[in-house]
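Q: Hi! Curious about what Ligase-associated DNA damage response exonuclease looks like structurally. Here's the sequence.
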Amino acid sequence: MGGAGRDACSAGDPGEKLPVTDLVVQRPEGLYCPPGDFYIDPWRPVARAVITHAHSDHARYGNGHYLAAAPSEGVLRARLGEISLQTLAYGERIVHHGVTVSLHPAGHVLGSAQVRVEHGGQVWVASGDYKVAPDRTCAPFEPVRCDVFITESTFGLPIYRWCPDEDLFAQINTWWARNVDHNRASVVACYSFGKAQRLLSGIDPSIGPVIVHGAVVPLNDAYRAAGVELPETRMVTEVRDKADLRRALVVCPPSAVGSPWLRRFGADAQAAFASGWMQVRGNRRRGGYDRGFVLSDHADWPGLLQAIGATGAQRVIVTHGSSAAMVRYLTEQGLQAEAFETEYGDDVVEADAAAATEAEPGA
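A: Let's find out. The predicted structure is below.
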C-alpha cells in the first residue's frame, strides 16, 4: 500500500521460521499490524489504514492513506470525501513491509471486506462486520482459511436467528399493500447505508411509489454506479401528486421519524423499524414503532458459528457485540478465544442522525 509493489506470492521464504508474534494487536488508535506498520479500521487518525467497509465506526476521516476493496470506492468517497484511497480487487494481493495483504468479501454491505494478513508462516483474518446470508446488493461472504480469526459478535446470542429473505420481504410488501388499501403512508426507518439499499432491493415497487430521505440518496447513487439494481426512487420534493405521499413506501434514517420532515406524509402514517434488534419485541415498543422487521446486515448466531468454523482457526478474537458470551461459548467448544476492546458498533446511528439533520432542508 502507498506505492508497495503487488505480488501474487506470500512474503518471505516458505522454509524460514520466523519468531511467532501476533500479527494484529490492540493500540489506542485501533487494531495494529506491527510487522506491516498499518492499522485495520482505526478509530484515531493514523498514517496507513486498511478499511473493511464504509460504515462510520470502521471508516473514519483523517487517516493519511486508505486501502479498501475496489467496490467500496463510491460509498467511501460519498462518506469521507476526498481521501488518499488505494483499492484492491477482491483476492488481489500486495506485499507491504514483507506482509502479504489481501481483501475478501464479507457480505455485509457494498464493498465490505475481510482483511487477510500473512507473515512469518501465520495467516490472520480480520473480518470487520459480516453476514453469511445471501444479499443481492453486495458480494457474498467468502470463508478464508486462517490460523487466527478476528470476528464481530453484534448478534452473538442464540436468540438471534434470521428468517429467509423471501419471507421477510413478503412481510414488508404485505404490510405496505395493506397500508395502501387504507390510504396511509408506510415509513420504514433503517440505516442510510447498507440497510436501506438491501430493503429497496427486495421490495415490490409495483405496490406504490418509493420515496427516500435525502440522507439515503448519495448512497443509492453509489450503489447504482457500482452496478447494483435498485428500484426507481424519488425525494419528497420531486412528488407532484400529493396523493402519492399516502401510497408511498418511505425509506429514511431513524432520526427522521418524529421530525417535521415526516409530517408531510400524514398523521396516520405507519412507521416501522428494520433492524436485527427487532428480534426482541420490546425494542419495537420502546422505540414507539407500529411494526418491526427483522432485517440485518450482520450474521445471526448460526451464521457467526458457521463463519468461524469455516475458517479452521484454532484461535478466535472477538471485537464487539456480545463478546463475553461468544468467548465463553467458543472456549467451551475447545477453541482459544479472547476479546479485543474496540470502539466499533456505536457510531452508525449517530452518523445517520447527522446525515438526516444535514439533509433535511432539501429532503
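A: A fun detail: The domain at 25-159+297-346 is CATH 3.60.15.10 (Metallo-beta-lactamase; Chain A).
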